[in-house]
Amino acid sequence: MVTLKIDGRKVTVRKLSTILDAARKLDIPIPTLCHHPELSPYGGCRLCLVEIEGIAKPAASCTTFAKEGMIVNTSSPYLEKLRRTNLELILSDHPNECMLCERSGDCKLQELAYFYGLRENRFKGEIRVYSKKDNNPFVTRDMEKCILCGQCVRICDEIQGVGAIDFAYRGLNTRVSPPFEKDLNCEFCGQCVAVCPTGALTGKMWAHKGRQNFKEVETICPYCGCGCNITLYVRRNEIIRISSNEETINEGWLCAKGRFGYGFVNSPERLTKPLIRIAPKENSIFNVKQTNPPLPPFTKVGRGGINNAALFKEVTWEEAFQYVSKRLKEIKENYGPDAIGGLASARCTNEENYLFQKFMRVVIGTNNVDHCARY
Amino acid sequence: MTNSIPEIENHDVIFVIGSNTTETHPIIGLKMKKAVKRGAELIVADPRKIDLVRFSTLWLQHRPGTDVALLNSIMHVILKKDLIDKKFIDSRTEGFESFKESLSEYTPEQGERITGVPKETIIKAALLYGNAVRPGIYYTMGITQHSHGTENVYSIANLALMTGNLGRECTGVNPLRGQNNVQGATDMGCVPDFYPGYQKVNIPGIKEKFEMAWLPWGASLSSNTGLTATEMSGAAMNGSIKAMYIMGENPVLSDPDMKHTINALKKLDFLIVQDIFLTETAELADVILPAACFAEKDGTFTNTERRVQRVRKAVEPPGEAKEDSYIIIELAKRLGYEMKYNVIEDVLQEARKLWPALAGIDYGRISKAGLQWPCPTLDHPGTPYLFKGGFPRGKASFTKVEYRPSEELPDAKYPFLLSTGRQLFQYHTGSMTRKIDAINKVSPFAYIEINPEDADRLGIDDGDLINVSSRRGSVKIKVMISERPLKGTVFIPFHFKEAPANILTSRKLDPISKIPELKVCAVKIEPIKLK
Q1: Which domain, by its residues, includes B363?
Q2: What is the ipTM of this complex?
């Protein structure tokens, strides 16, 4: 452990902690754009500069280890001037497109420009222009907005272990790119999108779905058993985005399904009314004898509902409940409760599963209840 | 899982067997990669060269279905090198002496003969695991979906017990559950032999306890053991089951031998399907009840590490779709049983009263972060890892397990061994993911993974359409030539209804758990000749 003094306050941190770690422990705000606590230190944005007693020049706090007895100052007119200039340099070739940018309101760069009151830019010069290659369905890459903080590169390599992107070229031409400047072709976990501090990387399906007036709902991912915590952004009864915060068991990381796989909720193919079969099962489109393998088309389901009116008719809930209870009663009376079986669902909640087995055991009177734990 | 997800990064050895973790449990996969980065040694035993192999110290490419032989020979070496934990064996287990004898013939040489893994690799794996301080074993359906799946699991338990690697932080045996709430559905008693909380239906006293709670006026619950899902389709076929109520499941695509499943469901007098989409199973229903999805209701899910977490309603269900709980309660009412709950939390309250391990969990406590059961009291912090200081049954017993081959192995007529499984982008039978355009763009169609040598021999190319047949049926499917499968084995993901892998799979069950042998069946491959 080492003890140091930051802005006159003592703090003790583990060996190999940086000054930034120590300052965060004291909840001292130091601006950063390239730092991420789970990634290796980078020292790219130069916003986290601090003054250290006995060292002539300001040092980047994210790459400087805390040492015993260090005396650190995180804020002074001089430091703020340096930070402001660095930010101005970062913004000098940034397209000021905040009006249309998907990240507006959720952009670290925008927020810093706001705090430092940067309207004019003394360093306006060459602007980088990129041709977009964005046929992938998940990630929009507006590389003009990239500030080369490298978080996406590091996360893809250090956390995801994929390395789908890296820096290419040098100087003003430097850009983050997949191999040979092709389109992104990776696991599409979207970790890069989650950490991007600007509008350079955004979710393709976020586009024009709204940046304001949404509510955030904390819930659990509906896919595998990891149980990742997710935040749903909901606007006008539609999920418009999913994110995950860092203080969760999944540390904010998600996979392609968890981050981008929410479109089924608002699918036009959702069932919206109870249905009762009107055609005999043998006449079903789905006839195994004729088609082995039963290749498509299975029943075609159209936009806005089911157009297999030949098989099912829409009924009210009351009709459906009466029909189901009448038939279940008949079968129970004629063949006994053990002639009825129930399959519950690993996709449903604990409460629903509890009710389902209680229904089978108490209302029907059988232990014939199971679910897909074996598949 | 006996451990928890946050513990993964602190293992010093991770032994993954029969789990394609980075694709089926991507976030647990990330934790394993993190552990490797922090210095852990990763042993992967898998017939396929899964992505996790890139991060491994050792890769054991054993033939599908030979897990017992592999594990027994690893244990043989551990015993021989005296890497067993005698203190643990003496104080916390029973039956080691006779179990020990059963390992004698599983020499690394014998292991190599059966599994195809070089004996040196078997020895290395044994030394790595045997010398580890905080090792974790991880498995999924690659271990369980066999006609000897239970024996595979016994073998894993034997390995952990003889090395004393259970009941400590970052040390344990971790089956990864494949679905968001498969743990919870089992916890809540949606299994034929258990009431909620793993309380056996046929142990005297337990039935009475549930009768008191559910039927206080003195009626009784059934004393017959129920049927498992796999048994139900057989019972439907032979007519002993006449009606089924299926909530949020799609057995037509997920169960083995699809033709049999369809015929069985068609034979029912009455089939109720309650789902969010018109699944392939719903197409066979007499009544379809439209349900609400995860974002349209409140409740809890329990993840693979036993963590009960809060699910919250974010949007309204479409049209007249209703929450599953509403539908069940309404049906019960019409069948003469009143289920009285004011809010959905009352259901969990009732479960808590009947299952002590859940007694300390309510919505208030899990509003920010979930809690792991056992959590017996309201001030209990939850249990990150199981079996600290002892096993619930007293002493854990060793089980002698002999290797026995899978039921349907390749032969002259059906020369390839087929395994089925998942891939990263799609989920289960695709009823959710395949409705999403973006996902369909990166994972548009079914494919069969074939080893390049086999493809060469058959004269087939990447992208060719071929016929794959087993004794039960055949599918047309695209070829993906890949270094992943072992020579002589092929792999098909089961997400795609256009080429359903489960037309091919066999209904051979494990005699104890009744799990189907989805990881091993025999198929033949025929190129489709252009006329």
Answers
A1: 226-348+355-372
A2: 0.96
